[in-house]
Amino acid sequence: MSAGGLALQAWGLACDRGGRRLFGGVDFTLGAGEALWIRGGNGSGKTSLMRLLCGLATPSEGEVRWCGEPVRRLREDYHRELLYCGHAAAVKDDLTAWENVAMASTLAGNACDKRTALRALELAGLGHAAALPARVLSQGQRRRVALARLHVAPLPSLLLLDEPFTALDTAAVEALSERIAEHLRQGGMAVYTTHQAHALQPIRQQVLDLDALADVPPALAERAAEDQAYAHAPRAGGLGAFARRAAAGVARLAASAVAASGRVPLPC
Ligand SMILES: Nc1ncnc2c1ncn2[C@@H]1O[C@H](COP(=O)(O)OP(=O)(O)OP(=O)(O)O)[C@@H](O)[C@H]1O
Predict the structure, then answer these.
(1) Which of 65, 125, 205, 260 places its Cα 20 to 30 Å from the Cα of 189?
(2) In sequence order, what are the beta bridge partners of 31?
(3) What keywords are assigned to this protein (predicted)?
(4) Among the listed residues 117, 179, 171, the one whose alpha carbon sits nearest the alpha carbon of residue 145
C-alpha cells in the first residue's frame, strides 16, 4: 500500500510510564480490510498503546500516521475517521441504555436518534433492557451498551477497541467478532486488545505481542530481582544477614541473565 493510501502506521513507537519504558520499537502498517490484535499480559501497555494510536497521548519516540500524515497534525480530521471504545466502558449510570448509545454516538460525530439507538441495542442483544438506567445493568450488559455504537451506521473506517470481549458471554463474543469481520469485509480496519486467547476468524490479521517488546533497562531489572530476593530470603531460623546476601547474589546473577534476554517479570 502506498504511503498516501488508507492505512494506519506506527513508526518506532515507544512508551514510557511511571519512569520506565513499557515498550519500544513498535512498527506496523495496517491496510484496508485488516485487523491488528494487540496482546500482552496485565500491565504490558495495551491500553497505553491504544491511547497513542488514538492520538490521546504522545509517544516517547516514534509517530502514528493516518494515510501518511502524522495524527498529531490531523487532530479532529483523524478523530472523525475512528471509533474508540475504551477499556472501561464509558457508560453513564444515570442515563438509560438507549440514551447512552445515542449520546456516545452523537458526541463522536455520528448523529443518533432514539429509534437508531434502540435498533443498535437490539443488534447488540440488549433490546429488552434499552429503557433501564445503566446503573442497574450487569458488567457484561454495560459492555454491550458501549459496543452498541458499532451498530450505528455509518461506522468510521478505523475501530480501536480496548478489551472489547471482556465480560461478554459466548454469544456476545461471537456476535461482536462477526460485526468486526463485516466491517473489515467492507474495507474498514480494526485494532483490538485482549490478553485472552482470542482471535478473530477468518480475517486478515496481524498480531502484536507486547510481552515480546517489553523494554526494561538492565540496571532496573537487576534491582527488581535483587529486591525480591531480599524480601523473600528467610529472616529467622538460623539464617542471618550473610545468607540473605548470598540469596540476593544468586538473584542478581539470574537478573543479569533476564536483563540480557531483554525480558523481566514485572510485579503486578
Ligand atoms: N499515567 C501513568 N503513570 C504511571 N504509570 C502508568 C500510567 N498509566 C499507565 N501506567 C502504568 O503503565 C503500565 C501499563 O498500563 P496499561 O494500562 O497500558 O497496561 P495494559 O496492558 O492495558 O494492562 P491490563 O491488561 O491490566 O489492562 C502499568 O504498569 C501502569 O501502572
Answers:
(1) 125
(2) 7
(3) ATP-binding, Cell membrane, Cytochrome c-type biogenesis, Membrane, Nucleotide-binding, Translocase, Transport
(4) 117
In this prediction, residue 170 carries a pLDDT of 86
Helix (H) or strand (E) holding 206: strand 204-209
Q: Does any ligand 1 atom lie closer than 6 A to the CB of residue 17? A: yes
| Residue 151: DSSP 8-state | G
* Nearest protein Cα to ligand 1, atom 24: 42
- ∠ CA 43-46-50, nearest 5°, is 140
Q: Are strands 34-39 and 82-85 parallel, antiparallel or unpaired?
A: unpaired
| Closest-CA residue to 60 (of 117, 51, 125, 161) | 51
DSSP three-state, residue 182:
helix
Q: Are 86 and 79 in contact (CB under 8 A)?
A: no
User: 46 near 195, Cβ under 8 Å?
Assistant: yes
- H/E segment holding residue 181: helix 170-185
Cell digits for 237? Answer: 531460623
Cα(267)–Cα(207) distance, integer angstroms: 25
Residue 203, burial from CB neighbour count under 10 angstroms (0-12, 13-18, 19+): middle
Residue 266 CB-density burial (10 A; 0-12 exposed, 13-18 middle, 19+ buried): middle
Residue 18: CB within 6 Å of ligand 1? yes
Mark the ranges of the chain whose per-residue pLDDT is less than 70.
1-5, 89, 196-202, 215-268
Distance 102 CA to ligand 1 centre (A): 30
Which H helix or E strand runs over 171?
A: helix 170-185
Which value does ipTM take for this structure?
0.95
| Strands 82-85 vs 158-161: parallel, antiparallel or unpaired | parallel
Cell representation of residue 63: 509517530
Chain-centroid distance, C-alpha 56? 13
